[in-house]
Amino acid sequence: MEFTKMQGLGNDFVFLDRISSSAEDSAEDYPQLARKLCHRQFGIGGDGLIVVLPSKVADARMRIFNSDGSEPEMCGNGIRCFARYIYDQGLIISDPMLVETGAGILKLKLFIKEGQVQGVQVDMGEPILRADLIPVLGEGEPVIGQSIEVSGEKYLFTAVSMGNPHCIIFVEDFSSLDFERVGPAIEKHSLFPRKTNVEFIQINSPREITMKVWERGAGPTLACGTGACASVVASILNNRTERIVTVQLPGGDLFIEWGLDNHVYMTGPGNYVFKGNWLGL
Ligand SMILES: N[C@@H](CCC[C@H](N)C(=O)O)C(=O)O
User: What is the span of the domain harbouring residue 168?
Assistant: First the structure.
């Protein structure tokens, strides 16, 4: 089975190209494939599986599966890699590029130099702030400064959805955080009926934050695009930053703007790692 491995700031994905497949989704068990292909020892290794599919309403359709086989609505780092992949395959029909995702049809702008995609800006749409739509058990819109308890310790969080749910917690200093224990406990906390991604944020200045992420269905990753967007929205809602922010992640920087049109714009890279044939069928 042919595959391409790509990464956006170290958030890595196995790509399967099903753009010309007429069987489409029906024949393949993507959740099981995701678990096998993403396995770091027995498979190719990745935080997720991305399937490139045809679309009737956009240039192409992206499905993403976490390494545990669950299917989230969206993936910010994945969609930048996806854009580069379909550009290189000559599959773009529109400008801006349109990609159908579980979070709707998103518009993407490609930065191209000498025929090579140097970076991608994604219009991530409007953040979802209503508790019942995120979803989080809580009141109101937005959900700011709500308390969550993990093994007797209380944390204050802000909840934001970028199509997928995020729980954002501001910390003074990462060294005092028991990330490996608190991250998974919040991911599966009963306050989040569809589980959640968890972002811990340190504010460096009104234009720069540092983020550590525990992803739903994948655990610790080097970057999360939707998480960076949700974290900037949370930082602005909490009056901690301005509207244009650099997000420092373990895998590199993302540039996020929450525009006055209420849309969130994410700019960053998408890169190839290698192509190959998976023989583990
Ligand atoms: N790494 C991604 C998000 C992938 C999905 C996430 N784990 C979820 O379950 O919602 C990104 O870059 O946004």
Answer: 143-262
135 lies in some domain: no
Q: Tens digit of pLDDT for each residue in 152-192?
A: 999 999 999 999 999 999 999 999 999 999 999 999 999 99
Task: Say if the ipTM goes beyond 0.90.
Answer: yes
Q: Are residues 103 and 153 in the same domain?
A: no
Whether residues 6 and 121 share a domain: the answer is: yes
SS3 letters across the chain:
CEEEEEEECCEEEEEEECCCCCCCCCCCCHHHHHHHHHCCCCCCCCCEEEEEECCCCCCEEEEEEECCCCCCCCCHHHHHHHHHHHHHCCCCCCCCEEEEECCEEEEEEEEEECCEEEEEEEECCCCECCCCCCCCCCCCCCEEEEEEEECCEEEEEEEEECCCEEEEEECCCHHHCCHHHHHHHHHCCCCCCCCCEEEEEEEEECCEEEEEEEECCCEECCCCHHHHHHHHHHHHHCCCCCCEEEEEECCEEEEEEECCCCCEEEEECCEEEEEEECCCC
Query: Does ligand 1 come within 6 angstroms of the Cβ of 146?
Result: no
Q: Is 11 annotated as a binding residue?
A: yes
CA 129 – ligand 1 centroid, Å: 18
Domain CATH for 15 = 3.10.310.10
Do residue 258 and residue 272 come from a single domain? no
CB of residue 11 inside a 6 A radius of ligand 1: yes
* 250 shares its domain with 272: no
Would you say the CB of residue 218 lies under 6 angstroms from ligand 1?
yes
The string of pLDDT tens digits covering residues 189-233 is: 999 999 999 999 999 999 999 999 999 999 999 999 999 999 999
